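discrete fold record:
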Amino acid sequence: MNTHITTSHGSDFYGLDTYTVTVLHDLGQHLRGVLPSADHPPLTRILDAAGQGQLIVEPDQAALLAILLRRAATHRSLKTAHSKVAMRLGIAAASAARAGEIWTWNLGSGQ
């Protein structure tokens, strides 16, 4: 398993963000505690799959994930570190959806 995931539509100069697989898996576990059980599965499935291969998220799905990520990021029970990751992912997902482009998660060797 690779240790880092690079997502498109990110905040750096090249439009990318890089996260460790551990951070994404950990975020998924915490989101189960802050989002309703009916809402979190589309998001936690992707976070749980981080590191298993390239993920491609269609624009309409990215729009839904952006909403869920932003909702989670502003939840008072989510720790600041997790909130920041959720917010960055939410912004990237929203950017992809707004542009009508796929949001990609690629395996990488890290920063």
Notes: The two ends are 16 Å apart (CA to CA). The first strand starts at residue 4 and ends at 8. The chain has a mean pLDDT of 93.
